[in-house]
């Protein structure tokens, strides 16, 4: 892995019996980059991410995340990343404050750090009136904002976001992406999966997966030029038709 590559993937493959969910993919992600991992539902995005965050072993191939081998150093990988899924990122029966304290403890933060980071998060998100509310009572958009902030508690080098804006309204989606940009500007690498093709426009580079393979990888601008279209949604549709 080069100094500026926070993720390095070489011929990564995942099979379930005779079914190949992720088929020989290779790519790199640089420090501070917002990297979009796009594809329709079932394309293999989440399966690939699970290998990168150390919770699923590759069948073949290799990958390093934050300098650690995902196959032999999975625990070190987990300590150096943040992770947020579309569901189950927070405990609905705990308050916002209680979730922060709980995950801060899991991440190994001291009581003083947890207290300081809790107050900073509440101030930054403007949650003073809701800090003692159960997470389950929050609108989905607020849940996702809090979950993203909690994933950053331990200052990870990389944050993996799996379909983070699924089901939220357009305004909240835009606000969420503003939070992503803020962290990327601080040097945090963002790896985000989505099936919303318009969100590809927000990424520095995107890969497009189709049936377990990466069929295109470049900046949104270059991909639109390559496929001679005006939007990333058109890129995806044209790519899918060409494969068919």
UniProtKB/TrEMBL annotation:
Keyword match Membrane: no
Record keywords, A-Z: ATP-binding, Nucleotide-binding
Residue span, ABC transporter domain: 7-236
Annotated protein name in UniProt: ABC-2 type transport system ATP-binding protein
Record organism: Arenibacter echinorum
GO molecular function ontology, one term from the record: ATP binding
Repeat found in the keyword field: no
